[in-house]
Amino acid sequence: MNPYLKAYTSLDSEPSSKEELLVEVYERLLEKLRLAILAIKEGDVKQKAEILSKVTDVIVILKSSLDMENGGEIAKSLDAVYAFCLDRLLRANAHNDSKSLEEVIEVLTPVYEGFKEVVQKKG
Question: What tens digit of pLDDT does each residue of 90-105 get?
Fold first, then answer.
């Protein structure tokens, strides 16, 4: 596993599957995005930049982990989602734009919910 992703997702208890790990990564991403919005609203530019740097790193890892040869339409769709997110994260960081972060949350939430549903059905 990528050391950045492993450090980012270190938890009190280990997930029992890749799907559970992915759900936990998404939960943390969404949490960090909400914290970044709060940092923007409070004018804490340093905190916002630190959070968005971490979130960007994780999105880049998720995007680069896609199996574009065997993943079919799902991989293509996720690639587009992650590209959109990276664009909005860049905009949010450059312009202290919480609306861009809200857009990222709106796009990632259904993906998170889909992965979470798969885990619940498997469990």
Answer: 999 999 999 999 999 9
Number of domains observed in the structure of the chain: 1
Is the pLDDT score of 48 beyond 60? yes
C-alpha–C-alpha distance, residues 47 and 44, integer Å? 6
Instruction: Tell me the C-alpha distance between 34 and 61, whole Å.
Output: 20
How many other CB atoms are there within 10 angstroms of residue 113's CB atom? 12
Closest CA to 119 of 22, 6, 8, 7: 22
DSSP 17: S
User: Containing domain of residue 76, as a range?
Assistant: 17-122
CATH code, domain with 96: 1.20.120.340
| Residue at 93 is within a domain | yes
Q: What is the CA radius of gyration of the chain?
A: 15
Sign of CA dihedral 5, 114, 99, 76: positive
